[in-house]
Inverse folding.
């Protein structure tokens, strides 16, 4: 059973992941529990402030440490399981399939998502948090990034996907893009399914798929090959 705690200013933004069939199946099978906690419930003033102006000047607002620490300390005690504390921020290490696999082996994840220009640095330091970015672009908040991480991790939990073998076949699981897939009909608008896939020769099919995966990767993502061959 994996427990994922999410500390966020917008718990309602996470509703769409609960609608996902994989997350639903995982929760129903008790493989997963996702718990959302609103950082604003831990605001410490009459205005319910969670952000303030940056010391030293500059544009925008910064997430204050007080409400995040109080929220974290409350959430941490909700379960005795330990696991990595993760801040979603463009300052983080780039998220990828390898990290998803690593995180899928944890018993617990605590994800912290922010808004505004960023987190007060003492949040990262004080909570011993690791920073994860989902790519070199800036989102308006960490919620989408947290949902990306949750989705990529949850589908790797054993039993979460209907067909057990399908997660291992994914793009990137072997450092290659996936081979082309076809389903019925055999001919669609003059485009025919490659004969080999209809041949019933499983060895040849496996060979062809590997070849296609390599060619695609060479063409579209040559950077992936550098690390693997
Ligand atoms: N918050 C804003 N942009 C982000 C990104 N690219 N990755 C993770 N969290 C973010």
């Amino acid at each position: 059973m994996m427990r994922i705690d999410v500390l966020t200013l917008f718990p309602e933004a996470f509703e769409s992941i609960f609608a996902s069939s994989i997350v639903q199946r995982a929760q129903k099978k008790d493989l997963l529990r996702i718990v959302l906690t609103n950082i604003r419930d831990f605001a410490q003033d009459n205005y319910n402030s969670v952000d303030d102006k940056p010391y030293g000047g500059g544009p925008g607002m910064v997430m204050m440490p007080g409400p995040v620490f109080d929220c974290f300390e409350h959430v941490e005690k909700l379960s005795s399981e330990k696991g990595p504390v993760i801040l979603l921020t463009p300052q983080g290490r780039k998220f990828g399939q390898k990290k998803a696999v690593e995180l899928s082996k944890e018993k617990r994840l605590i994800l912290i998502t922010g808004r505004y220009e960023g987190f007060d640095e003492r949040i990262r330091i004080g909570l011993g948090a690791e920073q994860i970015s989902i790519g070199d672009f800036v989102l308006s908040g960490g919620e989408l990034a947290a949902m990306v991480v949750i989705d990529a991790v949850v589908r790797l939990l054993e039993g979460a996907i209907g067909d057990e073998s399908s997660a291992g076949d994914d793009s990137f699981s072997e450092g290659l893009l996936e081979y082309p897939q076809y389903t019925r009909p055999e001919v669609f608008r003059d485009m025919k399914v490659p004969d080999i896939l209809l041949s019933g020769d499983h060895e040849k099919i496996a060979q062809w798929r590997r070849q296609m995966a390599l060619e695609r990767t060479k063409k579209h993502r040559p950077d992936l090959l550098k690390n693997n061959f």
In short: The first strand starts at residue 2 and ends at 8. Strands lie at 2-8, 32-38, 51-52, 62-63, 85-94, 108-113, 118-119, 130-133, 187-188, 191-192.
